[in-house]
């Protein structure tokens, strides 16, 4: 609640003269509203602590509704003011001109004035009622500081293994020395225990063990959770996300496992329907002798139905191992303090955790993150923990303590995760972008961008053990994470009516919904209630039936429903085989995050998408047939994802204006407009990875690259891929359509081209010098004879890949200076490959300092498809 109140205050404080010009006397209304909201915000912490009081609870619900309405109104007002300002610019929107004619302006100003007054009166009434509830004012909340010196993802993985050495040894021994019966080539081993004991962790430890990975021909992991859908499980086993029929799926599964000794983990199984299990089991019995299925479950009935071997019943940790785990997470460096009283209190707290690792880790992380002193520990034990004994579900109550102690802005970020299903893999960058789009990120005092503050929020939640199962990228930074099922249950309980997940055949959502996700079909929303027009998030995930969806025609009613969501900030329509996006999408003026990924039939986006003046993130990855993007996209755009858009032929005109752009996964050069490389020059906020394609189109005007210096100032880029055209592009991209003719013609021209094309490529590459802080560099299809000297200046370079460079004769001498370089990969570079035989010769730079060097005649793309 404090978050939305803070957002309203922030919007009121940031009003400019343009907004005041729309409504007469708006300035007085704004000042009055600010005063009212500030007074209400001061008592919210006390009110939220008294939600068991029905009067207080009702007051909060009423307040929540009006604050959301106020925020939507202020956002609408700000957007209208921005559009009004645009009328005087070079690009005049006719409908805006007409709308803001003098007569319409007066009428519209009066309308907005009435809306403002109505909201202000509602807030005044609520402010008056707070005095009767005897609510106490609390000081303004400040962010908790993330302890950066602790590598959260490392210590969590180590903590999780405490006390499970014997169980791991027993399970691993069974896997490696299993003698399956003659009649049953596949054994099923259940791991059984209550939530939070570490069943999944134990399975992971064994699954990832090097000896186990070498022993089995196939290793597969599936998170099953609540829904035991045979087709869905089979598709996850074979790694297929296509809309195949069940007959095709089971055939593919049999091909994958037939005659092979495999290890399959079915994690978090709840199904107690024996017939369903037998149907799935029939598909899994064709593996080689010695195949094993590990099942993790909380249910003894599940273990009885599925197991062919005696279950492994996981118990809680004893007091000694519980204390060891607690010490690791609660004290700096895992070292016990000298204070005896504090140690005694810690042991009392540990006893109440009943040996459950998740509870121990969560409460220890809470105490560590709060950096509490002795008196705080005493107060925590005597007040907070004294309530635990009165609760039926003690473990869940302990977990809830972590949530209760979060500041309000982190509570909002945590709650948002409830929209996605159990077992969902959260991508850190995506999660942060969603938080930013929803306005959950508080402005920082040190001018950091919202994404950087969002990273701090993420790390805070991770340090509290509310996220776990972390994976990292090649540079050691966190890439993905998951929520434990109990933590996910907690998130769903604390969110109230605001957050709704809709499943197939489930009742429609209620009036209080503001954030909604669904795994059902689009048809489910055609008759949704009118109250849905207050939705801020609408996420549809999962697969549709195998048919193309035209939102303008075959799904007209859904199209009408979609455009009624005037308050929408986040819209995700992934993997739905959408053919067209409705032109009316411009009506979603608040939209900040639009994800249309994995819509393989989508060819074009409507020009109206450029009218979304608040849009921050546009995601189009795996839109395989997408050919072009609209020109003059909004300057507010910060993230543009184009991974695997194989038919995209060029970048939109005016891309260089998007100076706020942080993510641009691909930059595709237009063969007919070689100067467009200069569009990159001003995009110095780009982060992470950038791939530039079709660099051969610059050969006729290589001087443009040198003069533009397009990459030198991009200090936040970590990965850079520079790609010319080469034969393997066509050979290994089956979805490529129109580029065939263009690319093949270009290849023929290259074969008869004058001899100096290598010289032009050398000029191009010389002009593409990146910032020295780049960590990974790929050069693919380059025709030059040598590499530029600037490679020796890339002092932080960790990985260098050179592929399909037929004319390249040598590596630069400067490679000796790259002391950070860990990987050097050379693929399909025949002249360099010959020199590998003379690696100690004078003409080959000294590369003994590089830990891993790969040289192969097979290109990376071939390796990918062969495997």
Per-chain topology:
Blueprint: H1 2-13, H2 17-20, H3 26-41, H4 44-48, H5 54-86, H6 94-99, H7 102-130, H8 152-159, H9 165-176, E1 186-192, H10 199-207, H11 210-215, E2 218-225, H12 230-238, H13 246-257, E3 262-269, H14 274-284, E4 291-297, H15 300-306, E5 312-313, H16 319-330, H17 340-351, H18 357-370, H19 374-384, H20 394-404, H21 408-416, E6 426-427, H22 428-437, H23 450-463, E7 468-472, E8 478-482, H24 485-494, E9 499-502, E10 515-518, E11 537-540, E12 549-550, H25 556-562, E13 570-573, E14 578-580, E15 593-595, E16 617-619, E17 639-641, E18 663-664, E19 666-668, E20 688-693, H26 703-708, E21 717-723, H27 727-731, H28 739-751, H29 757-767, E22 776-780, E23 799-803, E24 823-827, H30 830-835, E25 852-856, H31 860-866
Parallel strand pairs: 1-4, 1-5, 2-3, 3-4, 9-10, 10-11, 11-13, 12-14, 13-15, 15-16, 16-17, 17-18, 19-20, 20-21, 21-22, 22-23, 23-24, 24-25
Antiparallel strand pairs: 6-8, 7-8
Helix pairs in contact: 1-3, 1-5, 3-7, 5-7, 9-10, 12-13, 16-17, 16-18, 17-19, 18-20, 22-23
Organism: Flemingia macrophylla
Domain Disease resistance protein winged helix: 420-491
Domain R13L1/DRL21-like LRR repeat region: 677-829
């Amino acid at each position: 609640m404090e978050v939305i109140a803070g957002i309203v205050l922030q919007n009121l404080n940031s009003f400019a003269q343009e907004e005041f010009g729309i409504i007469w006397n708006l300035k007085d209304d704004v000042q009055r509203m600010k005063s009212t909201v500030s007074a209400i915000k001061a008592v919210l912490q006390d009110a939220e602590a008294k939600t068991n009081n029905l009067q207080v609870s009702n007051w909060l619900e009423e307040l929540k509704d009006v604050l959301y309405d106020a925020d939507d109104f202020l956002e609408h007002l700000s957007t209208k003011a921005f559009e009004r300002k645009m009328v005087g610019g070079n690009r005049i929107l006719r409908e805006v001109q007409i709308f803001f004619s003098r007569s319409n302006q007066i009428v519209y100003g009066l309308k907005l004035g009435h809306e403002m007054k109505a909201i202000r009166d509602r807030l005044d009434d609520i402010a008056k009622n707070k005095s009767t509830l005897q609510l106490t004012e609390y000081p303004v909340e400040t962010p908790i500081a993330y302890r950066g010196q602790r590598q959260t993802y490392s210590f969590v993985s180590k903590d999780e293994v405490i006390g499970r050495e014997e169980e791991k040894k027993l399970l691993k021994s069974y896997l490696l020395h299993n003698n399956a019966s003659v009649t049953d080539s596949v054994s099923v081993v259940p791991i059984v225990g209550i939530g939070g004991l570490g069943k999944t962790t134990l399975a992971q430890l064994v699954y990832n063990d090097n000896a186990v990975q070498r022993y089995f021909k196939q290793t597969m992991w599936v998170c099953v959770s609540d829904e035991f859908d045979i087709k869905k499980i089979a598709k996850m086993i074979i790694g297929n996300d296509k809309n195949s029929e069940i007959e095709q799926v089971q055939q593919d599964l049999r091909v994958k496992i037939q005659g092979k000794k495999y290890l399959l983990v079915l994690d978090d199984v709840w199904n107690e329907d024996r017939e369903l299990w037998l149907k799935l089991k029939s598909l899994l019995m064709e593996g080689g002798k010695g195949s094993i299925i590990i099942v993790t479950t909380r249910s003894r009935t599940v273990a009885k139905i599925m197991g062919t071997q005696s279950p492994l019943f996981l118990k809680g940790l004893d007091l000694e191992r519980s204390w060891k785990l607690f010490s690791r997470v609660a004290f700096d460096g895992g070292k016990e303090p000298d204070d005896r009283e504090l140690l005694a209190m810690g042991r009392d707290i540990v006893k109440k955790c009943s040996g459950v690792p998740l509870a121990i880790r969560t409460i220890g992380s809470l105490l560590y993150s709060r950096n509490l002193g002795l008196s705080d520990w005493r107060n925590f034990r005597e007040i907070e923990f004294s309530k635990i004994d009165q609760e039926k579900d003690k473990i869940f109550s302990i977990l809830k303590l972590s949530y209760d102690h979060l500041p309000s802005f982190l509570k909002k970020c945590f709650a948002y995760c409830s929209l996605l299903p159990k077992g969902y893999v959260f991508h850190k960058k995506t999660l942060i972008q969603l938080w930013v789009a929803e306005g959950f990120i508080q402005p920082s005092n040190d001018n950091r961008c919202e994404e950087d503050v969002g990273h701090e929020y993420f790390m805070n939640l991770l340090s509290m053990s509310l996220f776990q199962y972390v994976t990292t990228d090649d540079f050691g930074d966190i890439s993905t994470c998951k929520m434990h099922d109990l933590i996910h249950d907690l998130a769903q309980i604390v969110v109230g009516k605001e957050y709704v997940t809709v499943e197939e055949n489930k009742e429609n959502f209620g009036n209080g919904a503001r954030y909604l996700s669904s795994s059902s079909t689009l048809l489910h929303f055609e008759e949704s209630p009118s109250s849905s027009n207050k939705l801020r998030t609408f996420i549809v995930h999962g697969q549709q039936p195998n048919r193309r969806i035209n939102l303008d025609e075959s799904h007209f009613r859904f199209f009408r429903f979609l455009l009624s969501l005037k308050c929408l900030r986040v819209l995700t329509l992934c993997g739905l085989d959408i053919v067209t996006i409705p032109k009316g999408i411009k009506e979603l003026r608040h939209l900040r995050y639009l994800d249309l990924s994995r819509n393989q039939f989508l060819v074009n986006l409507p020009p109206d998408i450029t009218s979304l003046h608040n849009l921050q993130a546009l995601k189009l990855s795996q839109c395989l047939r997408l050919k072009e993007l609209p020109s003059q996209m909004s300057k507010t755009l910060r993230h543009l994802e184009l991974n695997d858009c194989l038919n995209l032929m060029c970048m939109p005109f005016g891309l260089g204006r998007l100076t706020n752009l942080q993510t641009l996964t691909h930059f595709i050069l237009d063969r007919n407009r070689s100067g467009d490389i200069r569009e990159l020059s001003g995009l110095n906020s780009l982060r992470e990875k950038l791939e530039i394609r079709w660099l051969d189109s610059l050969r006729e005007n290589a001087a443009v690259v040198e003069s533009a210096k397009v990459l030198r100032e991009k200090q936040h880029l970590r990965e850079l891929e520079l790609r010319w055209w080469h034969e393997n592009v066509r050979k290994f991209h089956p979805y490529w359509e129109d580029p065939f003719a263009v690319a093949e013609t270009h290849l023929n021209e290259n074969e008869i081209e004058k001899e100096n094309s290598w010289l032009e490529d050398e000029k191009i590459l010389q002009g593409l010098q990146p910032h020295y802080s780049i960590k990974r560099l790929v050069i693919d299809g380059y025709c030059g004879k040598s590499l530029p000297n600037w490679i020796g200046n890339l002092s932080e370079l960790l990985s260098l890949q050179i592929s399909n460079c037929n004319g390249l004769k040598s590596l630069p001498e400067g490679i000796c200076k790259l002391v950070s370089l860990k990987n050097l990969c050379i693929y399909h570079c025949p002249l360099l490959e010959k020199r590998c035989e003379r690696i100690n010769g004078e003409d080959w730079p000294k590369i003994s300092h590089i830990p891993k060097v790969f040289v192969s005649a097979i290109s990376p793309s071939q390796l990918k498809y062969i495997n």
